[in-house]
Design brief:
With 88 residues, the chain is α+β, with helices and mostly antiparallel strands. Helix content is 44%, strand content 27%. It contains four helices and four strands, in the order αβαβαββα. The protein has a four-stranded antiparallel β-sheet. β3 and β4 form a beta hairpin. α1 (3-9) crosses α3 (39-50) and α2 packs antiparallel against α4. The N and C termini lie far apart (28 Å).
Length: 88
């Protein structure tokens, strides 16, 4: 996978009060992703784009699109990445 494909999979971070609290409480960041994105592709794209290794990914479909809840090892790693992408 290259950077262009990774940018095609990960559309943008999804920021609400609830997802903001997920960063602090559960070390998770929510992203809107393409409909055809799978868990392994999302993990690979996050690793390539942000140089962080996710621990796990949960996916759900909503009226806003497909969301990926990406879990990181520690709250500090999640907080650092959230700051880096402009969530915090």
């Amino acid at each position: 996978m290259n950077i262009e494909e990774a940018n095609h999979i990960i559309l943008k971070p999804y920021i609400t009060e609830k997802t903001f609290a997920l960063v602090e409480n559960q070390s998770r960041i929510c992203f809107l992703v393409k409909e055809e994105a799978t868990k392994p592709k999302i993990v690979e794209a996050i690793t390539l784009l942000y140089k962080e290794d996710p621990v796990g990914v949960n996916i759900c479909r909503t009226i806003y699109g497909k969301k990926a809840f990406v879990k990181f090892q520690t709250v500090e790693k999640a907080r650092d990445l959230a700051t880096k992408i402009g969530m915090l």
